[in-house]
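Appendix B. Extra example for self-study. Work through it before the problem class; the solution is given directly after the inputs so you can check yourself.
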Amino acid sequence: MGFEVDDQGFYGDFGGAYIPEMLYSNIRELENRYLEIIRSDEFQTEFRQLLKDYAGRPTPLFRAERLSAHFGTRIFLKREDLNHTGAHKINNTIGQILLARRLGKQRIIAETGAGQHGVATATVCALFGMHCIVYMGELDVERQAPNVKKMKMLGAEVVTVHSGNKTLKDATNEAIRDWINHPVDTHYIIGSVVGPHPYPDMVTRFQSVISEEIRIQLQEKTGRNYPDYLVACVGGGSNAAGAYYHYLEDKRVRLISAEAAGLGVESGMTAATSLLGTSGIIHGSRTLLMQDDDGQIEEPYSISAGLDYPGVGPLHAWLAKSGRATVFAATDEEALQAALLCSRKEGIIPALETAHALAVLEKITPGPDDVVVVNLSGRGDKDMETYINKLGI
Amino acid sequence: MMNRIDRLFKETKGEILSVYITAGYPELGDTVPLLEALQNHGAHMVEIGIPFSDPLADGAVIQDSSQVALRNGMKLDLLFKQLEGIRPAIHMPLVLMGYLNPVLQMGMDTFLGRCRHTGIDGVIIPDLPPAEYDARYREMFSAYGVHNSLLITPHTDENRIRRIAELSGGFLYLVADSSTTGARNSIGDHQVEYFRRIHDMGLPVPGLIGFGISNRETFLTACKFARGAIIGSAFIRAIGESGTLSLQQKVEMFIKEIRGA
Ligand SMILES: Cc1ncc(COP(=O)(O)O)c(C=O)c1O
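Solution. C-alpha cells for the complete assembly:
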C-alpha cells in the first residue's frame, strides 16, 4: 500500500480534482508544471536559501526533559513555532510564492482560519512585492484579531467572509470563487494539504522539510533516525503531512494524528473529521468530511480556528482509513490543559492547534525507552486572549 | 420516447429560453408552482437547482437562495417527492443542476433512477469532471435515458471543447465568461469573440449560453451565437424581491421582459 499520490491525484480512495470547468485551466497549468518547477536545481537553491535565511530553518528538535518525566517516556519537540511568523505555514508559502513567480502570476489569494497561513502568505507577498488578498471568516477575524492586524501591516487586503459558519470552510469557498473570477493573473496559495490535486501533494512536498530534518536531528540525538511515535495535530493536515512524509512507508513509526473534538466527539460540536466523517467531496477533493444524509457539509466546531474545518486532506483520509495512522481527538478543555502543561513544564506556550497534539500524549502509552516526537506546529501568541479568558490567567 | 431536450431543440425555431430556479426557494413549496408559472408564461426549459451548503461556482444571489432553501428544509429526497406526478401537465424539458456531493450521497444509480421516474430529462453537475463522467457514469446515464450537459468556458482549449461536446447530451453549456454565476448588464467584446469561435466550430451538439445573462439585451446577444440562453441570478433576484406582486405575477413580468412580449 503506497502513500504517494498516484498519477490521477489519488491516495487510495481519496483525492482527485472535482472542480468546475472554470478552474480547469488553472489546475491543469499547476498540475503540468509543479513537479518540473519544484525539482529544478534553480528552484531548490532559492527555496532552501529562503528556508534557511528567511524562515530560520532548520528548526530545533528539542529534548523536553520535564514533559518526558511527566509522561514517563522520551519526548522531543520539533520546534516549528520558531519559524519566522510562528508556525510551519511559512514552509509552504515560501514554496508556493516561488512557484507562482515562475508561473508568471502577479496576484496572490489565500484563505485563512487561525490567521497563521494568512500571515505567512502576506509575509512572502511583502517579500516579493506581490499583491495579496486573504479571505477570512468573520468569526475568525474576531477570535484571531492580532493576526488580522499583522496581515494589514504587511500590506495584505483582508476580506471578511460572511457566508456559512463564517470560518475556514467559508473562507476557502470565497478564495476559490475569487480564483474562478481571476483565472489568468492569480495564484491561489492554499494553506493546507487540501483542495484539488495537485495541491495536497504540492503542499506536502513543501512541508516535507520537517521530517527531512527530524531524521537528521534524531540520528544525532538518539543514534537512530526514526521515532517510535510521531504526533501531530490535523486541521487540513499540512504540519502532520510534513512531519510524517519521510516516515510514511516506515512501519516502525507509529503515526498519531490529533483532531479537535471540540466539546466532545459525540457532542455535535466537534471537528473530529476522520473519526466522524464519511466519504464525500469538499473543496475539489474526495476525502472524509462531516456531512448530513443529504450530502450537505456540516459546520464543525473547535476552540481552535486552525482545526475548525469539516474535512481533512485526502492523504490523511487514506492514512486513517488504511490504518497507517491512528487518530485521537482532544477536546477544547484537554487542549487548554495541555497548553498550560507545556508552558509550565517547558517554558513554551504552544498554539491552540498544537495543544491538541500535546493533549494526545495523555492518550497514548509509549514505554520509558520509546522516542516520541511531537510536531510543535506553532506558537501561542495569537491565542493569548483565549488562554487568558479560558484559563483564568 | 425521445428525450424532451432533444425534441425541444429539434422543434423550436427561435431562441430557447431556459430559466434556473433554486428548489425550495423562495418558499419550500414553490418548486412546482414556479414550474407551472414558467411554462405558462413561455419559458422553454427549466433548470432546477439542488441547493448545496457550499456552492463554489455560484455568486452571492444563488448562494443566498441556496441557504434559504436549505433553511426551508429542502433536500434532494424531498425535491424528487415534490416532482412526483408533475408529468404530463408540465411538458417542457426539466434539468436538475447541482453539485456532486449530494448526488453521491444519494448514490448516482438511485439519483438517475429517480430522475427517470419523475421525468427529469437531463442534469448538470459542474464539479463532476468530464473524464470521470466518461469512465464511471456515462453508460449509467444512457441506460436511464438522462442527458448530462457539460460546461465549457472561454479558457477551455479547442481539443477539450470537442471532447466535452462529444460527451455532452442534450446541449453544451457555454459558461459566458470566467466567472461565478451572477447577473451582469452587458456582454463584452471578448465574450462575443468567444461565442463566435464556439459557433464557428460547428459542434455536434447545440449550445446554450449561461452565467451573467440577465435581461432582454444580453439574452438576444447570446442567442445570436447559440441556440438560446440560461437566466439564473437575475430571475432568482426578481422572484425574491419583496412587494405586493404574487409569485405568478413576478414570473409573468420577468419572462415578458426577456421575450419582448
Ligand atoms: C500552529 C498551527 N498548527 C496547525 C494548524 C492546522 O493546519 P494543518 O493541519 O494544515 O497543519 C494551523 C492552522 O492554522 C496552525 O496555525
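Self-check: Strands of chain B lie at 16-22, 45-49, 94-97, 122-124, 147-148, 151-152, 172-175, 207-210, 228-231. If your reasoning did not lead you there, revisit section 3.
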